[in-house]
Design a protein that fits this description.
The complex is a heterodimer of chains A (46) and B (185).
Chain A lengths: L5 H19 L5 H16 L1
Chain B lengths: L6 H20 L2 H17 L10 H19 L7 H6 L10 H12 L3 H12 L4 H8 L3 H19 L5 H4 L18
Classes of the chains: A mainly alpha (46), B mainly alpha (185).
Amino acid sequence: MTRLPGVATQLIGERMRSMYASMVREPVPDELLNLIRQLEAKEESE
Amino acid sequence: MTESPSFGDALIAAMPNLRAFAHSLCGDGQLSNDLVQETLLKAWAHKDSFVPGSNLKAWLFTILRNTYFTHYRKSQREELDQDHAALNASVPPTQLTQLEFEDMRRALMRLSPDHREALLLITAEGFSYEDAARVCGCAVGTMKSRVNRARSRLVDETSGRSNDGDVAEQHGSESITTPAKSSGG
């Protein structure tokens, strides 16, 4: 397999990380947060 | 002395990364939330099998990717509308320009699922090759090869040198691992 130039690998990495970071910063829906709290409450009540 | 976080708190802390990984894998905002929800329910149901002190994130990502590939295999007969998936992203770009963001997302979605998850785990999530291989249930050498091929493919895609013969590569013969105890942190 052809080895990519370092600059290409670096550019791809930077763009990937930037795109991914913006997704990580997206607010988590309340439904998912509430799911955990409901599971905890259910466990405590048992 | 501070109290250690509960299992639920740890799951909540992992949610942003789980959602980003799920969204990047499937390219669909609603489906990614469904995948994360299913992952959380499975993790909760099997939390006794998690070894405290081991790598919770790797354990959760293993469950998530297995859940995704189960879904992917079921829907494999349906043609994935990659353009729709790419445009369906609900996340506004902040560091990249809109065009760069869309280009990267489209190129990512044109990778095979195996290559996409390899690149996401190593490049975006910062997993070690060993942990990423454990998550995907493959050898470390296989993981390195997938990352190299994915990077090469992305360079071709984003520079307009795409080869559709390679794009058609699909997730296929390799076994999908079941969620397992993760070692190392």
